[in-house]
What we know:
Blueprint: H1 2-23, H2 30-138, H3 147-151, E1 160-170, E2 176-182, E3 189-191, E4 196-198, E5 201-208, E6 213-221, E7 230-240
Antiparallel strand pairs: 1-2, 1-7, 3-5, 4-5, 5-6, 6-7
Amino acid sequence: MERRSGRQSARASDRATARASGRGEAPSAKPSSRASARSSARESGVRASGRASQRGEAETSGRRSTRKSGKGDGMVIGIALGVIALMVVGAIVVYSNNNAKIRDAKATEERMKKAREDNEATGLKYMQAALEAGAPYIRGEAPEAKEETLFGSLRGQPDVYNVIFERSYKDRRNKSQTEQKKMNGNTSYNQTSQDWKKEDITMHTGTSSDGQPLVVSKRQVAAKEGDKANLGGWVIVMVKGIKEE
């Protein structure tokens, strides 16, 4: 029965084909068009899927790149801020050190200035007393003056280190002579500054052999006008001073 049915189906199909050929009609192409459409749809789906995949990969890559770029920018900014902070701290330290040096320099300058003023005042004070006591001897008005007359007002003064009167004159043979009278034998010292003038007095600082800071003042005493035998001389006053440093 099955064979007979198959043969009948085949003959029916042949007759249909023959009729169509007789009418000049082409066999039906509907099944082929549907297959082509399905194939095109599948290809379009594949292409769309590919484009979507590419877009997804591009977006993912962009996000990764953005994240990496963000991290890199953050590191650069952090390093830059660190460098700026170090520069600011360094500038503050340098500024503070410079200010400290300036303050120290000004303090030293003020201290030296005050020491100089005090030294001058002490030297001038005792120079005046020495002039009053020694000028008559130096001019030859009292050549035989005793030590008590010359140094009485200066001995015992705690600030007076030494006083020297130097007298120049001509002897009977008209030869120039120089003699000195000293309050004590402490005449050796090392000069520690350049000379400076205060009125008509020359002054400088020094240090004695035992380390005592000194102020040495020297003033010339002129001879009396017309006196050719007594030539005048010098008053030298050495007082204890303050170290100028």
